[in-house]
Amino acid sequence: MCCGTAQAWAQIPAPVEAELARAKVPREAVALLVVDAQNPTAPPRLSHRTGAPMQAASVIKLVTTFAGLELLGPAYTWSTPVYVDGSVQAGVLRGTIYIQGQGDPKLVLERLWLLLRRVQGLGIHTVQGDIVLDRSAFALEGTDPAAFDGEPLRPYNATPDALLINYKSVLMAFTPDRQRRVAQVQFDPPLWGVQMQTTVPLSEAPCGDYRGALKAVFTDLNRIRFNGSYPADCGEKAWPVAYVDPESYAPRAVQGLWNSMGGKLEGTVRYGTVPAALLAGAPTLELRSPPLAEVIRDINKYSNNVMAQQLFLTLGREGKGDVATLASARAVVERWWQSRISSSSEPLDLDKGSGLSRQERISARALGQLLQAAYRSPLMPELIASLPLSGVDGTLKRAKVASPGSAHLKTGSLNGVSAIAGYVDGASGKRYALVALINHPNAASARAAFDALVDWTAQDTEDR
């Protein structure tokens, strides 16, 4: 066991206790742990309610990303194979192109463009058949982007997909043109069959809630429009938004980008599967993702939910090419947890592997065990490098700590949940594993308590 079970509220440092009291968060809603990162037998420096199973929000991503590093390896990459079935003559393919998704979390616009550019590099500019998108590697049910919090247009609610293209989102870039009194609007990727308003009137209003001022209408499947104006003082802004019909997003994005690249398609872009006869041979080409060590930096530093779920589901395939389900992913990670982190009854209730769930639970003690195991692992540098630096970058860029850069911490927040977990460098030279979980309606008001806890942990020479 890494951590003591002391319950004494008096152990909590005075600055932390004061901030919790100011936020009106009671002791029963808090779990705190500070322990030597390298020595699992050392008594904890701070321990409060460490055995209580609690919601940890995106801190759960620590479980998914460390499991990914250990089970897949930091150099692991996802493949997106392309099969060309037919003959090519004078730039015309008389046949079908199959694009097979295998869970790549980072098939963003630039990489989709590269994949299609490589197809064109085969001498294909006109496809007389179809482009078929195969996403059968994941078997998912009930993937409603509005299910969690009723905000289906928020990119963080994008649902996983074996062929996840650009997070099922459109990036709208606004550039003021004062001479013409309009803001130019660029949409990426272009979606086939969707009319996109390319200019919006400028206003002299202050740059406050520019998104509200635009009065955007996203509910029409075939058109994105604005009924308001854009404040000129805002300068250039970029606004990502999930497309209202995620089911049709990938076909629209592929055909829209293919057309914008000068390609022609006489058939359609549709969902389907690669024929077994083609799978028996090698793909025509394949696009490889960045390595896992790079992908987990996006997952942890910016708390990317759908990328975490893509990794979680990939673990469910166990490297055997099986069809992944959430159940298979949970089974794989739970087996890994029992053999690698804790064989005891430490609470670990997984759902999607991202923390975007009310079902997932973990204790501060279990997170402490994970952090200590990771610190002793040869993969420690990759995991720590993926965590936000306090006061420097990622989700901790605005953290108000005395020594910016003294802590690598994963953050988590849901309505009624705030959490941090990771590593803090003490002034003595010792490195600590720190976990803080709050489950209370006032959790969002207690962020200052986390900053105070990080500062107290870093100032460890005062304890000596």
Report on the architecture of this protein:
The chain has 464 residues and is α/β, with parallel strands linked by helices. The chain has a domain at 9-75 and 292-463: Beta-lactamase (3-Layer(aba) Sandwich). The chain contains 12 helices and 22 strands. It has helices at residues 14-22, 61-72, 109-120, 210-214, 246-260, 276-279, 292-301, 305-316, 326-341, 364-375, 380-385, 447-458; strands at residues 30-36, 46-48, 79-89, 92-100, 126-127, 131-134, 169-177, 182-188, 195-196, 199-203, 216-217, 223-226, 230-231, 237-242, 264-265, 269-271, 285-288, 348-349, 361-362, 407-414, 417-425, 431-439. Strands 3, 4, 5, 6, 15, 16 and 17 form a 7-stranded mixed β-sheet that branches. It has a 5-stranded antiparallel β-sheet with strand order 2-1-22-21-20, with helices on both faces. A 5-stranded mixed β-sheet has the order 13-10-8-7-14. The longest helix is centred in the last third of the chain and has 16 residues, at 326-341. The model is unreliable at 4-10 (pLDDT under 50).
Q: Which key features would you list for this structure?
A:
single chain, 464 residues, alpha/beta, Beta-lactamase, five-stranded antiparallel sheet, 27% helix
